[in-house]
Specification:
Elements (H helix, E strand, L loop, with lengths): L2 H28 L4 H9 L2 H27 L4 H4 L3 H11 L1 H12 L3 H18 L5 H19 L7 H14 L5 H14 L9 H23 L11 H24 L4 E3 L2 E4 L2 E2 L2 E8 L9 E5 L4 E5 L10 E2 L4 E5 L5 E8 L2 E11 L1
Helix pairs in contact: 1-12, 3-8, 3-11, 5-6, 7-8, 7-12, 8-12, 9-10, 9-11, 9-12, 10-12
Length: 357
C-alpha cells in the first residue's frame, strides 16, 4: 500500500463522513414536534411517561443481563466479523478507495432485514393493542443491530466501554435542537477515548438513553397501547430504528477511519509493506505520589498514530490517527505510549514506558 494512495483515499472518505455528519446535524436542528403531536403529548399523564422511561430502563437491563447470548444466536459472528488480513488483501487487490467503499457497503447489508423485522414487530403488537410489552423486544432489536455493526468494524459489543458507546449513540441520535451539538460532541470524544464513558456508569447512562427513547416514542407508544388505533403507531419503531442506525453507521465508520492504519500489527510488531519495524524503547520518568507528583509529556504532530496500553490490560489496543497536533502524557508507572511517526514512505515506531523516578 503506497502511503500517498492511502492518504488520498482517507482524505476523501473523511469528507464523505463530514458531509453525512452535517446532514445529521441539520436534520436534528429542523426536527420539531408537530402541533398535533405536541397536543397529544400534553394529554399523556406523568404516570405513563414514567412507566415508559422505566420500561426502556428495564428493557436495556434485561438485554444486557440475559439477552447477550441470545442475540449472538441470531447471527453468524464468523461471517460478519472484521478480518484485518482479509481487508488488507482487499485494499491490495482493488486499491484503498474502492476497498473502503466496499467496507461501507458490507456494513449496510443486514440493515434492510432488521428494518423489516422491527416494522413487523411494531405493527403486530400495535394490532394487539400492546404498547409496553414490546419495549424489551425493541431494545433487543436495537442492540442486535448495533452489535452487528460493532463486530463488522472489529469491536467487541460485550465490552463495557462499547456498551456505553452504543447507549450514548442512541441518546445522541434522538436528541433534537441545540442539545444535539453537545450530545454529538460527547459521542465523538468517546470514539477516540471510550474509557472516558465509564465514569458515567452503565446504570446512569441507561436511564439517560431510556428517557430520550421515551420522549421520542411517547405519543406513538401511548397510542399503540390502544386496540385498533395501535396500528397507527406501528411506523414509530422502524422510524426510530432507522434514525439510530443511520447515526450509528456514520459514527462507526468514522471511528474505523480514525483507527485505520497504513501498517499492520502481528504478534505485537509493526509491519509496513511486509517489513518489520524496529521499536525504539524509551523510559518516561514519572512520580505517582506525594506533593511533587508529576508525569511525562510529549507533543505528537498531526498525521501520526498513537495508542496507550495500561498495566495489566491485555486487550489489543487500537491505534488512533491524530488529525491535529496533540499533547500526550503518562502519569502512572507501567503505562505505555506507542507512537508511529510517518515521514513520506518511512515509518518510525517509538514506545515510552512510565518508570518511577
Amino acid at each position: 500500500m503506497r502511503m500517498e494512495d492511502y492518504r488520498q483515499a482517507m482524505a476523501r472518505e473523511s469528507r464523505v463522513v463530514q458531509a453525512r455528519e452535517r446532514r445529521l446535524e441539520k436534520a436534528a436542528q429542523r426536527e420539531h414536534l408537530s402541533s398535533l403531536a405536541a397536543k397529544e403529548r400534553e394529554k399523556i399523564p406523568d404516570s405513563v411517561r414514567s412507566a415508559l422511561e422505566e420500561g426502556f430502563t428495564q428493557g436495556f437491563r434485561a438485554v444486557f443481563k440475559h439477552g447477550s447470548v441470545l442475540l449472538k444466536k441470531t447471527y453468524c459472528q464468523g461471517e460478519i466479523a472484521y478480518n484485518e488480513e482479509a481487508q488488507r488483501k482487499l485494499f491490495d487487490e482493488c486499491g484503498v478507495q474502492k476497498g473502503l467503499a466496499k467496507v461501507r457497503k458490507t456494513a449496510k447489508e443486514h440493515y434492510g432485514r432488521e428494518l423489516a423485522a422491527t416494522t413487523a414487530e411494531g405493527a403486530g403488537l400495535g394490532l394487539l393493542g400492546i404498547g409496553l410489552p414490546d419495549i424489551v423486544l425493541f431494545c433487543g432489536f436495537l442492540m442486535r443491530g448495533l452489535s452487528m455493526l460493532a463486530i463488522r468494524y472489529g469491536c467487541d459489543p460485550d465490552n463495557p466501554e462499547e456498551r456505553m458507546l452504543m447507549l450514548k449513540m442512541i441518546e445522541a441520535a434522538l436528541t433534537k435542537g441545540k442539545k444535539y451539538e453537545k450530545k454529538n460532541s460527547e459521542v465523538d470524544d468517546a470514539l477516540c477515548w471510550p474509557e472516558t464513558l465509564l465514569h458515567i456508569g452503565e446504570k446512569a447512562q441507561i436511564k439517560k438513553t431510556a428517557k430520550q427513547l421515551a420522549q421520542e416514542l411517547l405519543v406513538l407508544k401511548f397510542v399503540q397501547g390502544i386496540p385498533v388505533a395501535g396500528i397507527l403507531a406501528a411506523p414509530g419503531n422502524p422510524v426510530c430504528y432507522h434514525k439510530i442506525m443511520t447515526y450509528a453507521r456514520v459514527k462507526y465508520y468514522k471511528r474505523y477511519l480514525q483507527q485505520m492504519t497504513p501498517f499492520s500489527m502481528k504478534e505485537g510488531v509493526v509491519y509496513y509493506n511486509g517489513e518489520a519495524c524496529v521499536c525504539e524503547e524509551r523510559e518516561a520518568g514519572v512520580r505517582e505520589d506525594g506533593p511533587d507528583a508529576w508525569g511525562f509529556g510529549t507533543r505528537v504532530k498531526r498525521g501520526n498514530y498513537i495508542r496507550y496500553i495500561e498495566t495489566g490490560d491485555d486487550r489489543q489496543k487500537k491505534w488512533q490517527y491524530l488529525e491535529e497536533d496533540t499533547s500526550c502524557s503518562i502519569g502512572n508507572v507501567g503505562t505505555r505510549l506507542e507512537i508511529v511517526e510517518v515521514d513520506g514512505e518511512e515509518l518510525r515506531w517509538i514506545a515510552y514506558t512510565g518508570t518511577e523516578l
